[in-house]
Amino acid sequence: MRPGRLKPSPAMVVAIIAVLLSGVGSATAASLITSAQIKNGTIQLIDISSKAKKALRGQRGLRGFQGPAGPAGPAGATGPAGATG
Q1: Less packed terminus of the chain by CB within 10 Å, N or C?
Q2: Per-residue pLDDT for 79 more than 80?
Q3: 58 in the Ramachandran plot: left (φ > 0), alpha (ψ -120 to 50) or beta?
């Protein structure tokens, strides 16, 4: 055997191919799944990253003025008399 010239074993070749295909497979799945393929209501809050939740929340705006009081309602019936003390 010459130094610097190693022949890989068949197991090593299979392992390298498996690693390459696993990386390509997940990248392909990420690019193939679109929002049109996800049914409405299937993504839960736990499925979303905290960074995405923060981006969806946005900034809080100013508080608005309090509106005018509405009209008073009708008076209620008089209650029963209490016991004398």
Answers
A1: C
A2: yes
A3: left
Pick from 28, 58, 30, 53: which is nearest to 43 by CA?
Answer: 53
pTM of the predicted model, to two decimals? 0.29
Query: H or E segment at 50?
Result: helix 50-57
Angle 81-84-85 from CA coordinates, rounded to 5°: 140
Residue 51 host element (H or E): helix 50-57
Q: Return the closest-CA partner of residue 25 out of 35, 33, 13.
A: 33
Structural contact between residues 53 and 45, judged by C-beta atoms closer than 8 angstroms: yes
User: What does the DSSP assignment read for 4-35?
Assistant: T-PPPPHHHHHHHHHHHHHHHHHHHHHHH--G
Q: How far apart are CA 7 and CA 1, in angstroms?
A: 10
